[in-house]
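Hey, weird one. I pasted the Dihydropteroate synthase sequence into the form twice and got a warning about non-standard characters only the second time. First submission, copied straight from the form history:
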Amino acid sequence: MPVLWLRDRALDLSRPRLMGVLNLTPDSFSDGGLYLDPERALERAKALVAEGADLLDLGAESTRPGAEPVPLEEEKRRLLPVLEAVLGLGVPVSVDTRKPEVAAEALRLGAHLLNDVTGLRDERMVALCARFGVAAVVMHMPVPDPRAMMAHARYRDVVAEVRAFLEAQAEGALRAGVPQVVLDPGFGFGKLLEHNLALLRRLEAIVGLGHPVLVGLSRKRTIGELTGVEEPRERVLGSVAAHLYAAMKGARLLRVHDVKAHREALSVWNALWG
């Protein structure tokens, strides 16, 4: 039975699991500014858990295309008090950061998973995960800077290139003592519509590497381009459709904003396919 180890917890991955998104930012593309206040953030976290989130993903720096970096102390100020509160809700908590200094404090507080959009390019992130015995999400982005990533959305074979990067980063992390890795193709991170569609259609190439695969297409531009829905918060149905397809291809973690809609869809999907 496939399992994701989250410190002392084992998350059964025999069926797809939902990672609820909690952005503690003023400028995220979909919900920027809604949960900057720690009390509102905690209430949102409680709502995501009540809707059926299997784990939560907290981030305090937007990594949307063109996003400016957040100063270290500001990211800590946004993240750490909310993380400490959310850890009491009884579900595992992932921290989405690319700064080793932030990751170190989050792991000391008890975060269960490190989600690094830069793909563990920084050896300090690898060392932290190994030291704390914490699994890491390794995501593909062509360059480790959201401000420049779309300028590098050029591939001869996007699936082969993303697969090779994820395989190399995963192997390096495991050799360095990281206990487990999760692979994320990085939909929308330095990728155009055709790249995202190719990765989704051939997701089994990533799944075949033998590590749990996370897919995050929730409310993204790709969904808007396919559906014609301009407002990100209204892209729920398209997001659910894409994630169900990813589940059929073998994804076992779905990073979503709209947990209730995905939970209901997965209940039907599991009855038919699970």
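That's the output from the first submission. The warning seems to come from a hidden character in my clipboard, not from the data itself. The chain has a mean pLDDT of 93.
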